[in-house]
Every structure is written in structure tokens, then in C-alpha cells.
Specification:
Strand content: 5-15%
Largest sheet: 3 strands, antiparallel
Distance between the termini: 62 Å
Helix content: 40-55%
Number of domains: 1
Number of helices: 4
Shape: globular
């Protein structure tokens, strides 16, 4: 049997995402991803992931979401966890890159 391309695998999974618990929650999802990106400690990063994971916990599209994130090489929250380039990361994983500066008011 010939291996399937990652594009075909992602397309097969993506049609199931319309029934996901997060469908229609793009704004909230973006906020959780931004909170994770701004996190400067593992505890802050884990808190951002747990908020999204609660929505994913009983999601009918949970497996399809993971099946989509991996071949798409997704970076961000998917299937109740963080992904970087399609690879699952542990709960307290900190996103690489500069963090926004903290300013005093």
C-alpha cells in the first residue's frame, strides 16, 4: 500500500473539525494561544493550555484535530495540547521567541 501524503491526511481530518466544540470560538482560541505565547513560566503556559483542554476534553472531533495538526505541521493549540511544527509538546512547554515587554503603569 502506498503511503498517504500529509496533505491528503490533513484534508481527511479537517472535514470533521466543523463539529468540534471550538467551532465558532476562534476569538477565544486566539486569546488562549496568545496567552500561551506570552507565558514566561511553565505554570503560565500550562494554565493557558488547561483552559483550552477543558473545551477539548469531550469534543467529538478530538482525534480528528490531532490527526489534522500533525500532518499540517501546525504550531499552536490543537486537540487540547500545544503543538510545534506538528509535534505535541508537554503541558508546561514554553513557546520559543521573544516575549512582550512588561511595562509598569
Amino acid at each position: 500500500m502506498r503511503p498517504m501524503s500529509r496533505v491528503v491526511l490533513a484534508r481527511q481530518a479537517s472535514w470533521q473539525l466543523a463539529d468540534a466544540n471550538c467551532a465558532g470560538a476562534a476569538g477565544q482560541w486566539a486569546q488562549w494561544e496568545a496567552e500561551h505565547h506570552r507565558a514566561s513560566t511553565s505554570l503560565q503556559a500550562a494554565a493557558a493550555v488547561r483552559a483550552a483542554a477543558a473545551l477539548c476534553r469531550d469534543c467529538p472531533a478530538l482525534a480528528a484535530c490531532a490527526d489534522w495538526a500533525e500532518p499540517e505541521q501546525y504550531t499552536g493549540l490543537a486537540a487540547g495540547t500545544m503543538y510545534e511544527n506538528g509535534r505535541r509538546r508537554p503541558e508546561g512547554w514554553l513557546a520559543p521567541g521573544p516575549k512582550p515587554a512588561v511595562t509598569a503603569n
